[in-house]
Write a structure and sequence with these properties.
By secondary structure, the protein is mainly beta. The protein has 5 helices and 22 strands. It has helices at residues 2-17, 46-49, 134-139, 147-152, 158-170; strands spanning 28-30, 35-37, 40-42, 53-57, 60-64, 71-73, 79-87, 90-100, 104-110, 115-121, 127-129, 180-193, 206-207, 211-223, 229-247, 251-271, 277-303, 306-309, 313-314, 321-334, 340-351, 359-370. The strands form 3 sheets. Strands 2-1-6-7-8-9-10-11 form an 8-stranded antiparallel beta sheet. Strands 12-14-15-16-17-20-21-22 form an 8-stranded antiparallel beta barrel. Strands 3-4-5 form a 3-stranded antiparallel beta sheet, with no helix packed on it. The longest helix has 16 residues, at 2-17. The protein is elongated, with a radius of gyration of 30 Å.
Length: 371
Amino acid sequence: MKKTIVLLFTIALCFQFKYAYPQKVADYIATDSSISTGIKLIPSSPKLNSQYIKVKVKDGEVMYTPDQITRYGLRDGTVYEAEKIQVDGEERKLFLERLVEGKITLYRYVGQKYKTYFIRKDSSDLQEVHRDMESLKLLSQDCEFVADAIRVASYNNKESIRRLVSQYNKCQRKPFPYKKVGILTGVKRISLIQPSNSSNTLVNDVSFPTSSLPIIGLYGDFPLFMSEFSFHPELFFTRYNVTAKGRSSQTDVDVLVSLSSLHVPVLIRYTVPTPVWRLFFNAGPYFSYNLENSSDIYYATLSNNTVTIERPVQKKLGSDYMVGYSGGLGLQRNLNFRKTISAEVRYTRAIGPDDTTLTQKGLDLIVGFTF
C-alpha cells in the first residue's frame, strides 16, 4: 500500500505542476507603437508597481509611469497594464496587474488603502469586482459551471479569483478548490508490537491482539496553490484498553495497557478533479500524544505445584509521544457546492523515541463530512 501511494503521488505531481508555473521570459516595456526587450526592470512592492516601474540603465535608473508606457512585463511572467480607474472618487491612470487574459480579462489593483479587482469582458469597459462579486456573477451567466465556484471563491486570495476567471474562460465542469472544515469518525484497527531490537525484556513473550477502536475528531482541508493538492491536517481521539497474555516454561504473564490518545496526521492530499465522485489519496507525517498511558504487568510463577502471583509491575510500555507516517486512499462525494462526504482506508505506523517502547501500526476506516 505504501508503494502504491508513493506512485500515485508522483504521477499526480507530474500532471499537476507540468504547466503550473509560467515560463521565464525577458523583461520588457511597451507603448502603443513599440516594445523594448533586453532590459532589466526593477520591480518594487505591488503598491508601488501600480504607480511606476524602474529600468536599470548604465548611468543609474529610469522611471516610467502609466502616462509614458502602456504595459510592462517581468521575467516571472507578471504583466502590468496601464488603465484608467476610479480611486477615492478620482479618475487616475495606474498600472494594474493582469492576472488572467481571455474572454474575461482579470486585473488586480493594490493601493495604499485597499485591494480590488477589475474585469473586462471582450472589449467592454472595466468593471470593478467587489466582495459580493455581483459584477462577475452577471458577466459569467453564460457558463453554468462557475455558479457554484463563485459561491466558494475567496475574494482575499488572488489565486482563488484567478482560478475562478480562468475556469470561466474555459467553461469547464471542474471542481473548484476551496477551504473546508469538517468532522470525522470511524474505526481504528490498532496493533501494539514489540520492536525486534527491543531492550525491554518485561514483555518478550507477550503477543498483543489487534483491537478495534472508535475514533472521532475534526479536520481541515486547505488548497495548495489553488491546485488539486491540499494541506489536510486532522485531530482525533481514541481510547484503548487491551489485555495480553504470554507464557514461558515456568511463568505466565498478563499485561493490561490503557491509552487515551490524541492523534494528529498532517497530510498532503490529492483529489482527482472529477465532477461528483472524486477519488483521493493522501500521505504525510503522523503524531500522537497519550493523555493516559499506563501498563500493569502481572507475573504468575508455578513452582512445586504452587502458583505465586507477584506484585504487579507498573511501567509505561508505550511512549507518551509517538511519531510516524500515514497514507490512505478514499472516495469523496460532493453533496452540493460546499458540503462533501468521504470514506477512506488508511494505514498508519508510529514509533516511540527509543527501543524500549512498543510501536503501533493500524488500518483505519474513516468517514468525513464537511459543512
